[in-house]
Specification:
CATH architecture: Up-down Bundle
Number of domains: 1
Helix content: 55-70%
CATH class: Mainly Alpha
Strand content: under 5%
Structural class: mainly alpha
Number of helices: 16
CATH topology: Ferritin
């Protein structure tokens, strides 16, 4: 059994210096290689025996959409969007005492630039994460031993390609700059891709990364004032709900066959993934670009009384899904204790995505159609 330090490289979950010590060293590189040792598995059993996966596959086939369906002629004034978002969501200086901080003398121009850079950073990380999902799902097609799962995963590969495409286009045509992948996100994606066990790819991507993405997209959809982005997110969310359900429906069956020690490995992996994803939201790359002392900026950010609520909500899909898989309470509740330490256990009784995906999919699709 691994210690906290062995899993995430530090004993204290909130050690800011250790978190910020993890940085991208090759930001100018245009390619990044990860060695994957997984076996590609053929199956000669073509019978579709898993009815929930069959239903998901049929839903995916009828829910495909084209990026051209979005109203790309919508004018986006990024400064006005950033300003409107700040007005709607509240100003940081109204929630935090900034005296003696790097932001003490910031005025409207500085806060506006932060809003713009924050938009660029957030959408950039979404785009990088979607490429990670594209690679992982292609890997699942190769490695999962069930024909039902191969069929569905193939539809998700198409979904993820479309997601990378629309986020890339939005960043290039409507915003003002792309950020490199955050170091914490890249570490997590590398670990997921490099693991040879097919179910770890499922757990890391379908449950953890996609689960957080589904919550984050929903949060951004609620908070943004920009109509094109709202509609883009609605389409993406309709796909993401199925993706997370795919992980829940597949892993529940498989985890019932695993030993206690194997389940503990999955618990530890889920915890490590949760911490990596939490750490990336400190936006250290934004502060660097703005010329602000990163450590001092992060200290201020962590004082924001709204931050714990936002941070916890990002795990609102992950926690009930882990409970559905039996990971919360196995091994004397080890993961339950860890999620309690992270301040996210309150979501355990929310509806899991294996049950919820149809509703999420239909609501997102109906709203997108109405908006169009």
């Amino acid at each position: 059994m691994a210690s906290t330090e062995e899993m995430i490289g530090r004993q204290d979950l909130d050690d800011v210096e250790a978190i910020l010590a993890i940085t991208n060293q090759d930001v100018d590189a245009v390619a990044h290689a990860v060695r994957a040792e997984a076996d590609a598995i053929f199956t000669w059993d073509y019978e579709q025996s898993r009815k929930p996966l069959q239903k998901l596959y049929e839903k995916a086939k009828t829910s495909q959409w084209n990026s051209k369906d979005l109203p790309w002629d919508t004018e986006v004034d990024q400064e006005q969007v950033a300003l409107a978002n700040q007005v709607q969501n509240g100003w940081a200086e109204n929630r935090i005492d900034l005296a003696g901080t790097p932001f003490e003398h910031w005025g409207d121009p500085e806060w506006l630039r932060f809003g713009i850079e924050s938009q660029n950073w957030t959408l950039s990380q979404f785009m990088h994460g979607e490429q990670g999902a594209l690679i992982c799902t292609a890997q699942i097609v190769e490695t999962v031993p069930w024909i039902d799962a191969k069929y569905y995963a193939s539809t998700q590969v198409m979904d993820e390609a479309r997601h990378v495409e629309v986020f890339s286009r939005y960043l290039n045509e409507k915003l003002s700059g792309i950020y490199p992948i955050n170091a914490h996100l890249r570490m997590l994606l590398d670990d997921i891709i490099a693991d040879s066990r097919w179910d770890m790819t499922y757990l890391g991507m379908q449950i953890m990364v996609e689960g957080l993405a589904l919550a984050a997209f929903g949060f951004m959809h609620q908070m943004t004032t920009e109509p094109l982005l709202k509609q883009l997110l609605r389409y993406v969310m309709s796909d993401e709900a199925r993706h997370v359900a795919f992980g829940v429906l597949s892993l529940k069956e498989y985890y019932e066959q695993l030993s206690a020690s194997e389940i503990r490995e999955r618990q530890e992996f889920a915890f490590e993934a949760a911490v990596r994803m939490r750490d990336r939201f400190l936006q250290q790359e934004v502060w660097e670009r703005l010329g602000v002392d990163v450590k001092e900026a992060v200290k201020v950010v962590l004082q924001d009384p709204d931050r714990p609520v936002f941070q916890a909500l990002l795990f609102s899909k992950i926690v009930p899904n882990c409970k559905k898989l039996g990971l919360l309470d196995a091994a004397d509740g080890w993961l339950r204790t860890r999620f309690t330490e992270l301040g996210v256990i309150q979501f355990e009784d929310w509806v899991d995505t294996g049950e919820e995906y149809t509703t999420l999919d239909e609501v997102a699709r109906d709203r997108a159609t109405t908006a169009a």
